[in-house]
Design brief:
Helix content is 38%, strand content 17%. By secondary structure, it is an alpha+beta fold. Strand 2 and strand 3 form a beta hairpin.
Length: 290
């Protein structure tokens, strides 16, 4: 009887030990496995929740790890643009504000000056196009105010002039292209013109020297935006004086003379100053991050 009772107790103890050991093993085993290997297992949920708890800043313990936090340490900014703001930017913005006010004070034209002779003007940023129709001919003149300010004012400043006195006036003298088109022609006669620095004419003994000069002449297909290099180009550097004078007279008969060249300088100078002020305003807004 005692042997039977001892056998029952021993068997029960062994069964209890196997049950406890198996349950502990099953509880620990999933923690040692990668969660990605068992995507359908319910044991992956505690791991997912643990990530959420580490990211949740409202935990009762007050502990908020930064490793899995969505916020990062970024430099503080004064506005919502996310850009960098420094003391140098602040000083730069103040300088630009004063510069814009001064440039607006010395602005000569509230609107662009008109060209005499019935020229229509088309603007595209820094590029301007003047158009005139004459008895079956179309004359168009294109110029760009970029890089149109000659650097001669720096030379005058180096000659010992006092700052603020007799400061040279900034004048825009752009290169310009004259295109003459006839109705019955498939090509245009194109003149590449510029303002020479010495403003000297080609002819000797002239009562009035030309303030602009022809650099090149060529026939170009109508509607071509770029100068075709395959078309013959006549350079005026080594051109006969008589032929050059006839070319200048050809332009003068179509309204491109010294009067036109003077008005073009005034128009280009006003447009350049207008674009300069606009650039300063855009630069100020960029620095301020507006």
């Amino acid at each position: 009887m005692l042997k039977s009772l001892a056998s029952v107790v021993t068997t029960a103890a062994r069964f209890s030990a196997r049950t406890t050991t198996g349950s502990w093993a099953r509880a620990v085993e999933p923690l040692g496995r990668p969660a990605l290997c068992i995507p359908n297992s319910a044991t992956t949920r505690p791991f997912t929740r643990s990530i959420w708890m580490m990211r949740n800043s409202g935990s009762t313990s007050g502990y908020s790890p930064t490793l899995l936090s969505s916020s990062r340490n970024t430099p503080p900014v004064s506005c919502g643009c996310g850009g960098l703001h420094t003391e140098g930017d602040k000083a730069f913005a103040e300088f630009l504000s004063d510069e814009i006010k001064e440039e607006k004070k010395i602005k000569k034209h509230q609107s662009l000056p008109k060209m005499s002779g019935g020229w229509d003007i088309e603007l595209n940023g820094t590029e301007a196009k003047l158009i005139r129709n004459l008895a079956g001919e179309k004359v168009s003149i294109t110029f760009n105010i970029n890089n149109s300010i000659p650097p001669n004012f720096e030379e005058e400043a180096d000659q010992g002039q006092k700052s603020g006195e007799n400061e040279p006036e900034i004048v825009s003298t752009p290169n310009f292209v004259v295109e003459v088109t006839k109705q019955a022609s498939n090509t245009s006669l194109v003149f590449d013109c510029h303002y020479p620095e010495d403003e000297s004419g080609h002819g000797e003994g002239e009562e009035e020297s030309d303030i602009f000069a022809i650099r090149e002449v060529s026939f170009q297909p109508i509607g071509e935006a770029d100068w075709k290099e395959t078309s013959y180009t006549l350079n005026t550097d080594s051109l006969d004086w008589a032929l050059y004078d006839h070319l200048m007279d050809f332009l003068a008969d179509r309204g491109v003379d010294n009067t036109f060249a003077d008005e073009l300088i005034e128009l280009s100078t006003a447009l350049e100053h207008q674009e300069y002020i606009s650039f300063l305003e855009n630069l100020s807004g960029f620095v301020k991050c507006h």
